[in-house]
Amino acid sequence: MLAEALAANAAAVEAVLVDLLDGAHWPPRLTEAMRHGTLAGGKRLRPFLVVETARMLGREGPGVVKAGAAVELIHSYSLIHDDLPAMDNDALRRGRPTVHRAFDVATAILAGDALLTLAFEVLADPEVDDDPERRSDLVAVLAKAAGPAGMVGGQMLDLAAEGRFAADKRPLALDVDQVARLQAMKTGALIAAAVEMGAVLGAADRSQRVQLRHYGEAIGAAFQIADDLLDVEGTTEALGKAAGKDAAAGKGTLVSLWGAERAHRRLDELVAAADRSLAAFGAAADGLRRTARFVAERRS
Predict the structure, then answer these.
(1) Rounded CA gap, 288 and 265, in Å?
(2) What is the average per-residue pLDDT within 38-46?
(3) Helices (H), the chain
(4) CA distance 29 to 35
(5) In whole angstroms, what is the distance from residue 201 CA to residue 50 CA?
(6) What is the pLDDT of residues 267-280, one digit of tens each?
(7) Whole-number percent of the chain with pLDDT over 70
(8) Taking CA 241 as the corner, what is the angle to CA 240 and CA 246, rounded to the nearest 5 degrees?
(9) What is the predicted pLDDT for the residue at 169?
(10) Coil, helix or strand for 93?
(11) How do residues 80-127 score in pLDDT, each as one tens digit?
């Protein structure tokens, strides 16, 4: 059931993204790079969280899908920039050459910049929601998650942890709390924001929004631990990107600090925490409950 819902949502989001990235009046090379970095498949988990959270609260329709597509634009921009030589210097993403490999570094930077700014143009569109206050709220939630208090700040912490700015270039020995903070910012913030944006679109009250935020934070943490486990236990073919790269770079992860067995137990704890956060929503939240388990058990 969840697999079908994910596939249907991915197809709906993909159609919106294709339309948004038509680029009839944009420089052709820029358009091609933006499409290469965005229309490369994937589960579209973040847009699904927007749509499923709003659906649980009684809100559906094209505007919700469009808001989800805006989150995917931010996610795609972050991957393009994360893959750059100055960052992780990756050659593969979703089984295809990364944007800077398929085009060039300057084009990849501009493609990421364009996707970032386009996301907020999309959210400002009245087609997303006819209430300007809700649209403003959506922009604020996404901007905070993507900026210095979220994804960008987490990326800076990640670079610092790799020893990029140390005189001897040696990776820092981070403790569990430091790794958890880094991951909550770099990865978890956007996932939690997707859930919160669904809550905004569904007109959740304050208490509901707090509980859904807790749910989003739990599955955001679970997503990163699962990702780190896949880096250790997965293959390049299954992942569509280089496996074993974190260990080779000496990155501090919860898996490297705890070991795989403890990390798997932590995933179970996070799924349980996510489930507790949904208690007040009853059976309507079953889709989100299944999503939490899916995040923890994914294999790619």
Answers:
(1) 20
(2) 90
(3) 2-20, 28-38, 45-56, 62-82, 99-102, 105-123, 132-146, 151-161, 176-183, 189-201, 206-233, 236-239, 245-249, 254-258, 260-277, 286-297
(4) 10
(5) 8
(6) 999 999 999 999 99
(7) 94
(8) 145
(9) 87
(10) strand
(11) 999 999 999 999 998 899 999 999 999 999 999 999 999 999 999 999
Torsion of CA 31, 85, 179, 144, to 10 degrees: -30
Facing residues of 92 across strands? 97
Other Cβ atoms within 10 Å of 290 Cβ, number? 16
Amino acid at 297: E
Q: What is the three-class DSSP state of 298?
A: coil
In this prediction, residue 249 carries a pLDDT of 59
Sign of CA dihedral 290, 293, 297, 300: positive
Output the pTM of the full model: 0.94
Interatomic CA distance for residues 113 and 193, integer angstroms: 20
- Longest CA–CA span in the chain (Å) reads 55
**In sequence order, what DSSP letters do the residues of 181-242 get, joined into one string?**
HHHIIIIIHHHHHHHHHHHHHTT--HHHHHHHHHHHHHHHHHHHHHHHHHHHH--HHHHTS-
The single residue listed with the structure tokens 């009245």 is 126
